[in-house]
Amino acid sequence: MKFTGRILAILIAASLPTAMFAYIRWMYGTADWNLVVLIPVLAMIGWGLGEMYDKVKYSSEMDPLTETYNRRYLLDMFSRLTDECERKEEALAVFLVDVDKFKFINDSYGHLMGDEVLRQIPLAVAKVIEKRNLIVRWGGDEFLILLPGTKSNELLEHLQQRLDAELQTLPETLSVHVSVSIGFSVYPDEGRDLNKLIKQADRRMYRQKAKKANSAR
Which whole-number Å values give the CA distances from 41 to 16, 37, 44, 46, 85, in the listed order? Predict the structure, then answer.
């Protein structure tokens, strides 16, 4: 959880008596040391209020199970991401990661195992992508990964292979067979709307699922 609210609240709380102290000394040539004593008291109050703000902000932006960003956060942030890409003349890659036969895992091994599978996926993804990239739990067993500055299809396919290889190690961690399917799309070449980009990534992802199904026959 970020400390933004707490830090800002402490700075504001400490600045008020400090400013009053400086003003009185400048105007009247005297020092009111009672104001200085107030600084730690107000800082403690500010910390408490800031902590409440940080908790509310965290719960509104993060998925509590996987500790990734949630759908609401991405919907709020997408226009900022695309604006930044436009300014830098960069592309934005959108990856869709879907757990194969997730219902079977839940039904066969229980929901606790299903939850653990979902927790492990962003941990595996984080080993492959840079910190500045976003991992979002889009819903259910689907995750979105947003990578600003990525455009080349060869690079995207290479990254997809790396993601797939890393995610294939999940069975070793979980002692249950887990596989995922991955698709991607590119902003702005394949769309400027998030839903359109997800649909394109979804089509590529389902083609991958179909290949797996055909090779298993």
Answer: 12, 7, 5, 9, 44
Q: Are residues 95 and 138 in the same domain?
A: yes
- pTM check: above 0.70: yes
User: What's the whole-number mean pLDDT along residues 186-192?
Assistant: 92
Q: Which amino acid is at 54?
A: D
Q: What is the CATH number of the domain that holds 211?
A: 3.30.70.270
What's 150's DSSP letter? -
My answer on whether omega of the bond before 188 falls inside 30° of 0, hence cis, is yes
> pLDDT of 31-45, one tens digit each?
665 656 666 766 676
Please, what is the end-to-end C-alpha distance for the chain in angstroms? Answer: 46
Considering its fold, how many domains does the chain have in total? Answer: 2
Domain span at residue 55 reads: 4-61
Task: Tell me the per-residue pLDDT of 75-120, one tens digit each, with 9 for 90 and over.
Answer: 989 999 999 999 998 899 999 999 999 999 999 999 999 999 999 9
Instruction: Note whether 81 and 31 are same-domain residues.
Output: no
